[in-house]
Amino acid sequence: MIDVLALLCLPGAPETCVERTVPVGAANCAAAEAAARPRIEAWRRDYEVGAVRCGPMSAPPLNFEEVGPGLFVHVGDVALADPDNGGDIGNIAFVIGDEAVAVIDAGGSRALGEGVVAAIRARTDRPIRALVLTHYHPDHVFGGTALIDAGAEVLAHARLPEALAVRAESYLDQGRRQIGGPFLGSGIPEVDRTIDGSEVLDLGGRLIELQAWPVSHSVADVTVVDRSTGTIIAGDLVVDRHLPTLDGSLGGWLTVLDDMGGGGVTQIVPGHGGPLLPWPDGVAPVRRYLDTLARDLRALLAEGAGISEAAARAGQGEKDAWDLFDVHNARNATMAYTELEWE
Q1: Model's pTM, two decimal places?
Q2: What is the strand order of the sheet 13-26 is part of?
Q3: Would you report the helix, strand and coil content of the chain in percent, each value rounded to 5?
């Protein structure tokens, strides 16, 4: 299996270089170079591209745990993205069927996406058919271009392409600033097919069910149910330890938590933490936090509190229950305040 490797350097900073792999998995070098050419040319627009060569991919496999037969989960750090973790702060999963593999989310940098490909190749030679993006936040999407190079079709909520496009430049700037050198080569993945409602993917003797949801955690959330193991891969609709982050609708999120799951689901892969939570008990902490935020904000609105006061006071009873509370809670409260003040 032949890939193409390229040395990428920041323009004007030759000391900041990394080798990235275009994991095309071709039969020979000529075919690999032809398949990799579009990615290499795209990189030339943003980087100084040094040596380009054929060879096996250099990215080390990410660590994945088999949490059920043929279902693998990588758990990212519950932390903010930085150079030490390389943006590895969101969970990633993949499902192996008899004919193909589907990946759910791709991590927060190109390097992580390459690590996902390496981890899959270490377990199977079946093709990577699909990458499902559960939502558009950067810690879940920036590894996607590596999966695309490996042959995956990208599936996402019908609202995701627009939501990601309007945030693309700020997300890229954030990644460069927070992650630095390990972020080199990262880019916005293009969506091949959108989901509006539900869809079933057949991986060969294994069906996974995709469900697009109304505005909730974000404006474009999708869950994946692996019926073979009774698992719902929930993205950030369900999180563990990491404070829930609101980028959609508080009321919508609570409604979706009521509706997701369905018959046969017994466990959850959350978007952060885990790797597994029981269904439905694993949803309870997220619901408790959202209910607390809503109750506090309604009381503050009744008192006539302004948005700044509400952001400082709402949800404080949950402070000790979550990591990154001080990072995200005020923003959650601000967004929910603007929703609830019109009730």
Answers
A1: 0.97
A2: 13-26, 2-10, 48-55
A3: 35, 25, 40
